[in-house]
Amino acid sequence: MTDALGPRIRAAIAEEVAAELRHDLRNHLAAIRNAAYYLRRRAEKTPLWTDDPRVATFFELIASESMRADERLGERGPSWAATGAKARVGDAIARALDGLPIPEAIVVGHEVPPILSIEGSEEDLALAVRMVLENAIEATAGGGQVRVSAGYVHGAVEVEIRDTGPGIDDPDRAREARWTTKPGRLGLGLPIAARAMRRLGGEVVLAAADRGARVLLRVPSEGPLP
Asked: Which of 127, 138, 119 is nearest to 93 (CA)?
């Protein structure tokens, strides 16, 4: 079975890892600039500052090069958002399910109004659904059910993904990048889903559930699009 969404998933993983690395590196550069500033202020009060003009030059080099590196790290990578596009929610969910490995012990069902649409990229919505579905299937690895539904709820088009797994004990921690309970996994599912939803102007919501996990992918909308 061919997974048509596979290349986009790999690109999204690379994007998420790169974004986290950029964030970490910018923090390190800020620490270097702060340390250099402190040392410069101390050095200016010593004979070293006047005896060797290269000292001031080197401090200026540290400041300017770290700023240039920070600016380069702040440059945005490619965006896959489709301006002015309309995405049918049912097609996006079908795309997310296409090629998704589903163990025999797990039943995956979905119910989506055929005309329900959003403004934005179908690929981004499919990617967000796929990431949450993969988490749900992992959570019910011993057997269970995963249910996908969608509708227009309180000013938003909302995709709901429920599973009968153990649920999420700490929703705040689950929202963090690289969070996972699975050994050997990167824990990038929710961050990738959240990034894709932000491109759609939406969000990922970890909602309360009596059993298992309940995740909402919500895109504000004035009403279902034709």
From this structure: 127
Residue 115: domain span? 86-220
80 in a structural domain: no
Query: Which residue in 13, 23, 27, 24 sits closest to 191, CA to CA?
Result: 13
- Rounded Cα gap, residues 91 and 89, in angstroms: 5
Q: What is the mean pLDDT of residues 65-81?
A: 67
Residues 122, 197 share a domain: yes
**Residue bearing tokens 């988490």:** 135
Asked if the model's pLDDT at residue 215 lies above 60, the reply is yes
Domain identity same for 99 and 25 = no
Q: Which two tokens stand for residue 196?
A: 């894709």
Q: By C-alpha distance, which of 29, 132, 144, 128 is closest to 81? A: 128
Q: Let me know whether 65 and 113 are in one domain.
A: no
**Full-prediction pTM beyond 0.70?**
no
| Beta bridge mates, 214 | 162, 207
| Domain CATH code at residue 191 | 3.30.565.10
Domain count, the chain: 2
Angle value at C-alpha 91, between 86 and 93, nearest 5 degrees: 115
Residues 105 and 199 in one domain: yes
Residue 93 pLDDT: 92
- Strand residue runs (E) in the chain: 86-88, 106-111, 117-119, 144-153, 156-163, 203-207, 214-220
